[in-house]
Write a structure and sequence with these properties.
Layout (H helix, E strand, L loop, with lengths): L11 H11 L4 H14 E5 L5 E6 L5 E8 L13 H8 L12 H22 L7 H19 L6 H8 L3 E7 L4 E8 L3 H13 L6 H17 L2 H13 L13 H6 L2 H11 L5 E7 L3 H11 L23 E7 L4 E7 L8 H12 L5 H9 L3 E10 L7 E8 L5 H17 L4 H18 L3 H15 L4 H10 L3 H11 L5 E8 L5
Parallel strand pairs: 2-6, 7-11
Antiparallel strand pairs: 1-2, 3-5, 3-6, 4-5, 8-10, 8-11, 9-10
Helix pairs in contact: 1-16, 2-18, 4-5, 7-12, 13-16, 13-18, 14-15, 15-19
Amino acid sequence: MRHAIRRLSVTVGATILLFAMAFLAPASLLAQHLAEFEQRMTEFTLDNGLKFLVLERHEAPVVSFHTYADVGSVNEVLGITGLAHLFEHMAFKGTKTIGTNDYEAEAKVLAEIDKIYEAIKAEQRKGLQADRSKLEELQKQFKQAQHEAQKYMVHDEYEEVYKLAGSAGFNAYTSWDATQYIVSLPSNKIELWMLMESDRFCNPVIREFYKERDVVMEERRLSIETRPQGRLIEEFLAVAYKAHSYGIHVIGHMSDIQTITRPEAEAFFKKYYGPANLTIAIVGDVNPQRVRSLARKYFARIPGGPKPEPVETVEPPQIGERRVSVEDPAQPFVLIGYHKPGINHPDNAVFDAITDIIGMGRTSRLYKSLVKEKKIAVAASGFQGLPGNKYPGLFLFYAVPAKGHTHQECEEAIYEEVEKLKAELVTPEELTKAKTRARAGLIRQLDSNSGLAAQITFYEVITGDWRNLFTQLDQIDEVTAEDVRRVAKEYFVKKNRTVGVIETTAAEN
């Protein structure tokens, strides 16, 4: 989610022309494109704190909607880890009017389900002293109540309404930093979206919660517990962070997922999914004044409240290298991470340049050295952005050893390339290519309404101004070879790094 230039109103021919211009464009030209964006952008904030970014693109009668909730797994605490991700699964379960044939009756059953589950948890807390027969009876009642709730649910109604309206890209996703809801619709369906999306936040119903919780538990088994690289990433983050919640995987701890309750989910939603914590981008064939009028009609009804405070925990500096290994019959793997500042730090553009020079594609230093020349790896790269961008994250290097070679060889080869960044200035050609690809990357990312909506919400929320989507390229243009060497020397040091490896073991018979 990060790079860009380009005028909104373009034909295919104009797109090609702009793409060519990107390779020659001076920084001053970027300001012209920003000015054109500003002419087409309408910004407004409702009294309840909900911000809208409306961008006109009239080439086709379609509109992309992107709702960005400024909450992710980083906002969780122990005991409810995985809850933000669970809301990705709950996103399309409906409201008090959508997804139900009798909400009043359904609400009573949902309350009964919560009551029974609390009784189950209370009995389970007794451990070895728990009454097995009582637990069995409670579990039976729990299943019966869930079955009863199904009588009042209209399955997939939320999605079906959009599907019948001609939707595309209907989805939701969660990261450490955010929860996002997206859909594209014909431009004559704007009011339908206003009704549906406002109802999601005004009258949410967390139905089928325990069923979806079981789905997430299975997802965790498949994506982490049965995948060596998944296990390594979880262990790696837990070692790299000892204080900050970036150290907990988005999907959460299994024991937390197993015991989270629907009332806890409702409290989390009430705190973090209020209008002051939402930013909505609407990009496409729209009339901004009509959008403003409809937004007031539908979204102004959502009760306001204060924007939640950001995470206050600060990860302390490392005082020595940390290492973690996962033993598995799988292919060996090495992952190296160095702590770095967040996206709003002045050195962020330098890390972008380093990413391109050392880690991006077949022409990068790592790929050429480890894969092409030494032939000790089948893949190698380096990049920033994990776990997130809002708070200080990591710059990561990784390599997948080739057959007959080890993770130790690859680790040492990565360090050799890192030391070159410290000892020698990168070439003017490398810097020029990095800056050129940043411009070209911007064009690709803004080529669709949905991509543009994602970009402007990201930059608005994470950096404080969507215009930074453009100014970041000015910052990259200002990066010098000496900046690259300075940053490498400051951050890519042994005491600031965490190393994770998969140690290949013999397969069990």
